From TrEMBL:
UniProt keyword annotations, A-Z: Signal
Gene Ontology molecular-function annotations: odorant binding
Organism taxonomic ancestry: Eukaryota, Metazoa, Ecdysozoa, Arthropoda, Hexapoda
Superkingdom: Eukaryota
Residues in the signal sequence: 1-19
A Pfam family that the UniProt record links to this protein: PBP_GOBP
Matches recorded under InterPro entries: PBP/GOBP, PBP_GOBP_sf
SUPFAM superfamilies referenced in this protein's UniProt entry, alphabetically: Insect pheromone/odorant-binding proteins
Protein name as catalogued: Uncharacterized protein
Amino acid sequence: MGSIYYTFILLIAAAAVLGDSNEERPPPGPLQLLMSRPTKKQIDDCMTENGLTKDEIKPPMEKKEPTEKQLCFHKCIGLSTGVITKDGEIVIDKIKDNISRDSEFPSSVVDELITCLKGLGEKINACEDMKKIAKCVPKPPKRPE
């Protein structure tokens, strides 16, 4: 279940890295709502810091668990965008700001997300801890066909 959420993170990062900054970006995915949209420099810095290439942050076609490097990349993005502090605290107010800016989710879903994040009670210290955040992310709303 968690792997689908990481696919959204990788998709967001890949769009930011591979897309031209002047191009219009697609609507945000659910995990992007949690994190401010990273700049190309933040993404490049986090890729370099974690030894990742552009291909390694593209979403895989098959649903796979993220690698340790990918988890560390996402932690780095969270730190660089201010959603996670250096002490590993999740900055709920920053997440609320991000959600209010881009949200397609009903307020009840947002309330559940915030309650879940507050209930984690643990800091995001290790890269593996990024999986805790993914468990709180709501499923994306279904788009009409």
